[in-house]
Amino acid sequence: MSSRTRTITPDEIEQERYPFRRAWPSIIVEIAILAGVCVGVYFITRLLNIQLSGLPLSIVEAALIAVPVILWIVFSLMREQAADLPRFRLLIVMIITLLAANAVTIPAADALFQTSDWLPHEATIQRILGYTFTLGVAQAITQYLVVYYCVYPRGLRVRADSIAYFAAASVGYAAMLNIHFMLNSTPALDVLALTVFANQATSLAMSFMLAFGLAEVRFASPTPFLMMIMLALSALIFGASVTLRGGLVNGGFSLLGSEASPLYGFAFSTILLVAVGVVIAFFFRTAERREEEAALAQAP
Amino acid sequence: MTLTSKLRLCSGAIITLFALLLIGSPIQAQTGLDVERVQRATVLVMQTRIVGNTPIITCVGSGTIVSRDGLILTNAHNTLPGANCPGDTLIISLNIRPGEPPVARYQADVVQADPGLDLALIRITRQVDGRLIDRTALALPFVELGDSESVNLDDTITVVGYPGIGNDPIVFERGTVSGFAAEPSGGDKSWIKTSASIAATMSGGGAYNQNGLLIGIPTTAPLTPNPTTGNCISVQDSNADGLINTNDVCIPSGGFINLLRPSAFVQPLLQAARLDITISFPLQSVATTSAPVTAANRPRFRYLGFSPSVNAAGMPTTIIRSLPTGSDSLYLFFDYENMTPETVYELRVNTNGIPNPNFSVSPVRWSGGQRGLWYVGSSGQPFPNGTYEFTLFIDGIAGDSARLVVGGGPDEGPAFSDIVFGLLDSSGNVTGTGYVLPTGTTASARFLYRNMNAGTPWAAIWYYEGQEVQRTDDGTVWAESDGANGTKTISVQSVTGLLPGSYRLELYVEGRLAAVSDFTLAGGQDGSFARIFSDTHFTTASSIQEALSAAPITSFSAGTSPIFAMFDWQLIGSGTLWRIDWSVDNQVFFSQTQPWSGAPTGSNFLMQLASPSGLPDGTYRLDLFIGQIQFDTAQFRVGIGQLPIDRFSSAEGIILRGRVINSVSREGVPGVSVLLISEDYSVSDFTQDWNQNQLFATATTDRNGRFEINLPLQRDVQYSVVLLAEGYLPITADGVEITDEIHPDNSPIDITLELTPE
Amino acid sequence: MSTTIIEVREAPVELTLRQRWSHYFAIIYAILAVIIGINLRDTALYATVPYSNPQVGITAFYPNHWLIDNSGNYVFRVRDMSQTGFKTAMQVNIIPINQDMTTRNILETLILNRSQTDSTFRVLSQEPIQLSDGTEATQMRSTFVASDEDPFLESIPTVVERLDVIAVQGGQAIIISFLSDAQTFESNYPRFEQFLNDIDF
Questions:
Q1: What is the pTM of this model?
Q2: How confident is the model at residue B18 (pLDDT cuts 50, 70, 90)?
Q3: B672 touching A, CB under 8 A?
Q4: Which helix (H) or strand (E) holds B620?
């Protein structure tokens, strides 16, 4: 009989290692840092009354526009390589969305809908509907189609994949919106900072909706109208975001003068993103639990 | 450093800071003058004419915009075509930016002018390139006229104008009211004298009181341009010889200005210009022009004399040899002949051989008739003791002069004064209007006398139209029975009847002119009064012939034009000065004094009132005067009998202006519509109907995003605002109200508004 | 020596019918939404407001949100105040004419008046047209330079293109005018076309 040393603690239960990069934490880190950078630039510019122009302004603005992309590369794309089962074509999704937005969606939507000619002067409800059925739908369908045709269905191995891919698409689309904004509106640095955040936040909130829809279609067996509904809701988020944020930002009239309130817009974008994110995360969690329970029920 | 010294240092610094702040903006800090509004309303008026293909400047002066639709108040001498100013086009330059020379923007036409008073109202009618302007679309900054009658000695005033021929920006000259000059044309305040240093090209500009209201027009009339005397400047090669020299057109520049024509003289002209009514005399000729000057009819002054006061008829109460110490009024009387409104006269006063600008009158246009008795005087302004020499100049050439000693006690010598004329009643009293008597066989005069001694030689000489008609016998001496002091009545008689016309009575004592007065005989006798004009009535007709037989009308429908006025007259001597006053709602808009040139007696003297858009509603009155006495009046109504309220006539209020910027790029947004909604409507009312009638005013931003609501906003009135531009979120607001807390003074509100692009 | 290549392929994922239809519905929704968007745009851009003036016998439909003004020397005028720069305008004017006057005479009068008041006025073309109700009319295209009347603002003058449609009816000439910045004339013209089709006099 051989003697054998035994510990008094119970044996460690061997746990299966999660093989994919977790998408939600990366998104939270990226957007939190982006918010910090944008608000920081806003306050520094305003408090120190920094007034750049010419090449220095262009360089700083280009850098600012690059921030969300860089954050995504650092916290999503590069960390993807550390995962056991990395997602493929993430970068492709981001770049194709960016190019599609620039080449097709943004110019086509501008030419077709001419929203600046008629929407700013409409009533709030009409504006929400107007933006929803024009630019909102255009952005939502672009993100959806890029993800769908680039990675669907093989790329979606787990539900979180949907979030990761749509987040990549949202970064690409928002980056192109920011570039267009910088080139066409010649914004002041502080305004650009908050707009970069607002575009990214809205785009991300829309992508959450789309991600949930596509994940459900992939892993559950929902009604065939679900993706359509999520597209509509995503577009509605865009319409509501543009309209309500614009209303909050737009200055009133006073005999002492009036200023726009971009911080209100920032606050609104943040709240919108958090609200949509929490709701969609809850739906994801519920769906995953439902799936786990179904799997357990099927197990022998 | 001790605490006390630190405190002292601090308080010294604060006081210095305050002093610097006060010095920094002298005009604004010390007066209620809206400097920017006045700057914008002050224009440079250039009279030009085309020589070859080149416009040549012929005359230059300043002017002031007095209505939002482009009426400009200026002098007549630099706007009306004449020998000194032979141009035919008026170019208006505006002060676009403070501190910069004016920029030519418009052409203007003369709409009202009085060459004698040297006032003109010109209206902007075209862009500088000749395009016609819809005057209802103009909304220019303008100033309001103040009450020049309330101006007092030593009041602080600000004179504004252009000191050069076009290269100099506006200047503001501060000064005080140093006195008043009296003339028959306007009484004691015919001119306001000022200590402000005013360049000649500022003539026609504006003088403002402490409340920022225009109370006078700096006025001087340049003499005939003569390059050798330096009273004009050549600035263009008008004869195209490649040189700018004395052969080129010389722009009159004049000398100094110490006179302001009071704003009270402007009111009738302004009212007439606003009403846009023209008055013509289709059947009768009314002398408004004068014959060219020749050696025979050269203007001249003579018989200079002094009086301490004038009576209601503008006649000297007495003639004095000296003025007692402490006297504060003195009038220089003289006869004038062959004068025209273009004649320039000047009074230079030396006190003890030293020029005395306080009592001098710089060169000005002649505002009287062709011949008669005139005075220049001053009241309410103490005369220091000394020997005063008064010299009159006509067109720059010295004429008669007279001396007077101020000092010592009252003159105790024999004197006559206070002549009045009339008819004798049964009790031997002189009755009537005083200076206008009905024609008849007798005219009487009553005068005061004092310090008369029995046996003192005296004489009374009566003149008719300058010709002696009667005098007291040679060697007439004062009767003891008349006493030393009292009143005496004398008469002029003619068995064939005294002819209607102008008469004069001169009273002499001890061979010296002691009193003089003119009077007029006209009309038939109506008791002791004259009945000169009668049957004044009005009608409307499509032709003159039809008007003469049409029935009288006293109430016309709105928009009627033309309206004819007619009256009969009797026994008016040729050359008798008479005056027509037209007023609407008791505001005179036409006043013209002229020598009678028609038949002595007649009927249907016809006047025609016409306006392109019909006569405005109102109660119109016609008054007919001889001298200062009204002899007939009649009135009629048009429409509701009251002038429509012009909500644009007041410059009172606060100008709202500012800049609309893109909230993203912080750059100005051009083409933004700024709509100010009347207090009766809200934004939701307006955006339901989008009706112009609901708007108080509108503005559009320029290329820099700047806008200006050029209708002044009223305090404590709630307006609504809409800002609109394609591609931007609109800005709307209700209850926009200027309160004392937001804006305590009347300076313009300058705001920056951020428009958000979408 | 022979080499064997073994290709490892992931098993293809077959889409279910429900998944396919889900995608088709998404595409269909996008197409429908774009159509709705265009419709919303047209509804907003071409929305009209009725105008009626029984005194002169005119009914018309003018663009919604345009400022209507009937205080000038015209029957009415509407302007798009949201336009930056020159405000696109349509106006209707009625002038009484002599029975013998022709459209040609009216045109000449208009040209003379405008030439005298505006040195920048130029006639581009004149041609006969037929209105939607069959009325014979003449249209004249012209240009002029418009500038802000406020001399203290730095406004840049705008080249304005003007289209006048002149019809003679019942002893009066009806002049329907369209004025727009020359650069945006063509894009704004459909609104005038709609206005012209709807007007009844």
A1: 0.80
A2: very low
A3: no
A4: strand B618-626
Q: Which residue has the tokens 């930002």?
A: A249
Of B666, B742, B754, the CB nearest to A255: B742
Nearest to A117 among C23, C28, C45 (CB): C45
Q: How far is C122 from chain A (nearest CA, A)?
A: 30
In whole angstroms, give the CA distance from residue B142 to residue B157. Answer: 18
Range B300-317+322-406: architecture per CATH: Sandwich (2.60)
Domain with CATH 2.40.10.120 in chain B: 30-255
pLDDT digits (tens, 9 = 90+) for B152-211: 989 999 999 998 776 788 989 999 998 899 998 888 889 999 888 788 778 899 999 988
DSSP B379-418: ESS---SEEEEEEEEETTEEEEEEEEEE-SS---S-EEEE
Instruction: Measure CB to CB from residue A118 to each of C10, C22, C41 and give the nearest one.
Output: C41
| Closest residue to C81, CB basis, from B138, B675, B689 | B675
Fold of B30-255: Thrombin, subunit H (2.40.10)
**Measured between CB atoms, does B465 come within 8 Å of chain A?**
no
- Asked if the C-beta of B683 comes within 8 angstroms of chain A's C-beta atoms, the answer is no
Given CB atoms, is A184 within the 8 Å cutoff of chain B? Answer: no
CATH code 2.60.40.1930 for B532-638: yes
Q: Is A184 left (phi over 0), alpha (psi -120 to 50) or beta?
A: alpha
Contact C150 B699 (CB under 8 A): yes
pLDDT tens digit string along A196-236?
A: 999 999 999 999 999 999 999 998 888 999 999 999 999 99
Interatomic CA distance for residues A115 and B312, integer angstroms: 78
Contacts of B459 (CB under 8 A, 6+ apart): B471, B472, B476, B507, B508
CATH of C46-149+156-198, one of 3.30.200.20, 1.20.1250.20, 1.10.10.10, 3.40.1000.10: 3.40.1000.10
CB of A257 less than 8 A from some CB of B = yes
> How crowded is the C-beta side of B498, counted as CA atoms within 13 Å?
31
Q: Identify residue B550 by its one-letter amino acid code.
A: A
Which residues of chain B make contact with A246, given a CB cutoff of 8 A? 729, 756, 758
Domain boundaries, chain A: 23-46+66-248+261-289
Chain A residues close to C34, C-beta within 8 Å: 112, 133-134, 137-138
Chain A, 198 to 217: residues with Cβ < 8 Å from chain C are: 217
Q: How far is B726 from chain A (nearest CA, A)?
A: 6
- Domain B415-526, second-level architecture: Sandwich (2.60)
Chain B residues with CB-CB distance to C152 below 8 A: 40, 94, 96, 141, 708
CATH 2.60.40.1930 residue ranges for chain B: 415-526, 532-638
Tokens of A171: 């970064």
ipTM: 0.89
CATH, range B654-755? 2.60.40.1120
